[in-house]
Amino acid sequence: MKGIILAGGSGTRLRPLTGALSKQLLPVYDKPMIYYPLSVLMLAGIRDIQIITSKAHLEMFRSLLGDGSRIGISVDYAEQEEPRGIAEAFLIGEEHIGDSPVALILGDNVFHGPGFSSVLATSGARLDGCELFGYPVKDPRRYGVAEIDAEGLLVSLEEKPVKPRSHLAVTGLYFYDNGVVDIARRLTPSARGELEITDVNKVYLEQGRARMTELGRGFAWLDMGTHSSLLQAGQYVQLLEQRQGVRISCIEEIALRMGFISPEQCHELGHELKSSSYGTYLMDVAEGYVAGPAA
Description:
Layout: E1 2-6, E2 27-28, E3 31-32, H1 35-43, E4 48-53, H2 55-65, E5 74-79, H3 88-92, H4 94-97, E6 102-106, E7 109-112, H5 116-125, E8 130-136, E9 144-148, E10 154-159, E11 168-176, H6 180-186, H7 197-207, E12 210-214, E13 220-223, H8 227-244, H9 251-257, H10 263-272, H11 277-287
Parallel strand pairs: 1-4, 1-6, 4-5, 8-12
Antiparallel strand pairs: 2-3, 6-11, 7-13, 8-11, 9-10, 9-11
Helix pairs in contact: 9-10, 10-11
Protein name: Glucose-1-phosphate thymidylyltransferase
Domain Nucleotidyl transferase: 2-236
GO molecular function: glucose-1-phosphate thymidylyltransferase activity
C-alpha cells in the first residue's frame, strides 16, 4: 500500500501563524504537525509516502524530511497549485499510487490509541474497496457522519446532517483500493469547484464495498484547523508524554519498532539532536530497545 499525506491549503483559519509557514509545519508541543499523520502511515507499515503541498512550502517539507531514508522510508513530494478538494490528491498522486492500494491522511490530524498498528493492519488486510475510520463525537452535525451495520459495512453517509443517524464522524484517514483514481477522475466538482471525498466514499457505498473501522474508547482523534484545536492538541500530547514518559508520534522510534531502522541508527539520530530532550529520548529508546509491537 502507498501512502499520501495531504498537506496543502492556505491555513487561513490559523492566520497569522500561517502567513509564511505551512500549517503542517507548525509545532504541536514538541514536534512538527506533519509528524503525526506521517507516524500513522508508518504504523500501518507503509514505507512509500508522498506529501502533497503548495509550491511555496514544498522545499520546507523537503528540508525537514528529505527523502525519508534516514528513518527507513521513501518520501517524495508533489505540488498542489491550489486547494480543489481532498479527492484531488488521487489525481495529483496518480503516478505515485501506480497499481497499488492507497492510504490517504489529512496533514492536520492526530490519531492516538492502544494497539493502533494492529488496528491499522487489520483494516488494511480486509480492504475491499474503501475502509473509513470512524470516531464517536458529541455533535455529529459538524462532521461527515456514517451509519454502519453490525458487520461494519456502511449503510449511509451524510455530510454535516441536520438530523444525524449516528454519532460516528468520518475522520481524516482513508484506505482505498486502486480503483479510487478512476473514481476521482469521474467526479463532478462541487459548487465550490472541489472534488469532494464524500462523493468518492458514496461511490463505494453504492457498490456495497465501503466499510468502517470504529476508533472507540481509549482512542483520541484531533484535528488542528483552529487556534483552539491546535492548542488543545499540543496540551493533549504534553500531558500524556509527561505523565507516561513516552513520545507520541515519534517517527524515529516508530521506525525502530517497525523494523525500518536498527537500534544503532536510532541512536545516531538521537545523538544528532543530543542537545534536546527529544534527542536524549531517542538515545535512551535505542539503548533500551527490546523488539515488540510498535504501538
